[in-house]
Amino acid sequence: MNQTTSAETDAASEPGIFELLDVQKVYQVARRNGLLGRRKQDLKALDGVRLKVAKGASIALVGESGSGKSTLLRVLLGLTEPSDGLALYRGRPIAEARAAGPDFAREVAMIYQDARGSLNPRMSVGALVAEPLRHFGICPEEEIPARVEALLARVGLAKEAVQRYPAGLSGGQVRRVAIARALASNPSVLVADEAVSGLDVSTQAQLLNLLRRLQREMGLTLLFITHDLGVASYLCEEIAIMYLGRIVETGPTNAVLSAPAHPYARALRIAAPEFFAPITEPLPGEIPSPLDLPRGCRFAGRCVFAREECRHDDPVLARAQAGRSVACLFPLGA
Ligand SMILES: Nc1ncnc2c1ncn2[C@@H]1O[C@H](COP(=O)(O)OP(=O)(O)OP(=O)(O)O)[C@@H](O)[C@H]1O
Ligand SMILES: [Mg+2]
């Protein structure tokens, strides 16, 4: 397993599968402005994101609602273009890679958060799994039924499932169909947005086992958005913690979670006592509006360790010890 992924973007090292170089994504949003009516304002959904995803890496993207996780995935999938900075797939701009032909879509598969909503309710499971096989011309028509059956077996569904429709499937089965569709094109990268949320604990555990096994067997590069640090540490060797459009800490999951260097990473860990030592110390204050970012470090207003400098200087993600990077003027444990 490749352990070299980090937010570091040394020119000397080989290009990653994905590389984000100071990526910004700015949305124009309407904002009420008293008697003057509506006014357009910039919302920085991503604000200088640096990330390198090495081949075979498994990375959990973690952070509060609105921190930019889905926007980051949309950039990686080429569904939205950065407003500034560079987003590369195998060393070339993602937009160019996407436009060049079907290879990008075949190699980079997505599992959507709303798995049920992503499946056409009028198509049977067999037709749903056959669709990407045909679309990408993976095999001759006569081999499709056998391929569909093999894909269903791979995700733990019986061959009888081919005749069923999404409405008759449980939440866990629907996710398995979505995973089978994602795997149909033989991708090298699997991108998932909250793929196991909203399920009961045992179904979630079964799906996590399945994803972990598939990732290892197929050597997939995995990018997995989750709110759940337990899921992140079970499934992903690396973690990237986001706060208000930035990655504030990244590195090996267990190292980051057992000794977080960024106060926000520490606060997240404390908020998950079911997986870690129960320390009750809630994160003070509210997440600031991305329309009104504070000066200096964007986390300073909620940080129990903030010093005067933190109100003025905006820390960038910088390499810390052992493959870790942190965006903090005074990292914990340093
Ligand atoms: N199309 C859009 N137009 C305007 N603002 C947007 C758009 N998409 C996202 N945003 C804003 O960008 C910020 C980041 O949103 P994003 O959906 O990436 O967050 P997230 O981390 O995925 O949150 P969640 O955990 O709730 O899914 C938020 O403030 C959101 O309101
Ligand atoms: Mg999201």
UniProtKB/TrEMBL annotation:
GO biological process: peptide transport; transmembrane transport
Membrane topology, from the record: Peripheral membrane protein
UniProt keyword Transcription, yes or no: no
A molecular function (GO) term: ATP hydrolysis activity
Main location: membrane
UniProt KW keywords: ATP-binding, Nucleotide-binding, Transport
Subcellular location: Cell inner membrane
GO cellular component: plasma membrane
Family to which the UniProt record says this protein belongs: Belongs to the ABC transporter superfamily.
Protein name: ABC transporter ATP-binding protein
Keyword set includes Transmembrane helix: no
PANTHER family: D,D-DIPEPTIDE TRANSPORT ATP-BINDING PROTEIN DDPF-RELATED (PTHR43776:SF7), TRANSPORT ATP-BINDING PROTEIN (PTHR43776)
Pfam family, one: ABC_tran
